Amino acid sequence: MKFALPARLLRALAAVGCSAGLLASCGGGTSHYDKFVPSRLIVFGDEYSALTDPKGTGNSYNYAMNAVDPTDSTNATVLCSDSSRYIWVQRLASYYGLVFKECNPNNLASGKLNAFMQAQYGATERAVEAQVSAFQGDIGHDALGSNDLVTVWVGMNDVIEIYKDSVTYSSTVDKTTEAEARGERLARLINSITDTGARVLVAQVFEMGSTPWAKAQGSSEAKLMTSISDAFNQGLRTVLLNDGSKIGLLTFNDAIANLVQYGNYETTEAACDDAHVADIDNASADSNGYLDGSASLSTCTTATVPNDSAAKRDLWADGIHLNSYIAHSTLGNLAITRATSNPF
């Protein structure tokens, strides 16, 4: 059976191939630009970009299903260096030969650790502003500059927070208006980051209504979450100074939608068992803009899922979080393509 490429996929491919119409192969001019090769990678955002190393061993956990160390017969040790389980920013860092302190299997000296993990579980848009300020104020490293590549992916937790808060945002219009305003604020923050000379890859929120958790709330509720997601992205795109020279827009929303609709993966259930998932139902944001509920998700590994098929076939690790094996490999490759094709 043959299928025509869906319009959404065509848009995603076109976005990767054409960087704001500036590349000669996309009908633009033929002017030469030097290829940008960053000396540092700085990651801001939420758990979809986060590594956590609570033991300080350089063998981090992710929130997308961890690999286990095959030399440990008890399956109690994760293996952050297993590239099949990299999250998307690890794939991007690896492409440029940059290493995170959190995942440092070769025990490189601190001076050689040039990938900086600032993303944290539960972050909302307002938390990312604090992440950027904290990085800029840390005297332990240089502030952002022209040799840096910055990634920003946030908004999924904003959608959850806004959706669940029907006191502050009592109507659909209230919810989508707030989401759009948050997207606009994030865009202004990203625009300000480019003033430092750093280049930025910013990803759009995927449709939270497509997640197993959203679908479990009912079709109308899932549709509402998608509307909130779209409003956030609308605000982001409207204000973002996206001419391709300093900012690369990652269409992660289209990429995930394609995996959901056309990827032939299991999309209705989560791979991780109930003892190793985030508590989404009871999650709420603290005063710093972080949603809670993370404790168990980082312990999800390929050894805690029902079988190997679930580890590789299920698109979702839990109710809202993506499986590293499937989704993050796709997103990482998309980020690499954008970083190397934009005229930074």
UniProtKB/TrEMBL annotation:
InterPro entries: GDSL, SGNH_hydro_sf. It comes from Ideonella dechloratans. Residues 1-24 form the signal peptide. The keyword Magnesium does not apply. Keywords: Signal. Pfam families: Lipase_GDSL (PF00657). It comes from the Bacteria. This is SGNH/GDSL hydrolase family protein. One of its GO terms (molecular function) is hydrolase activity, acting on ester bonds.
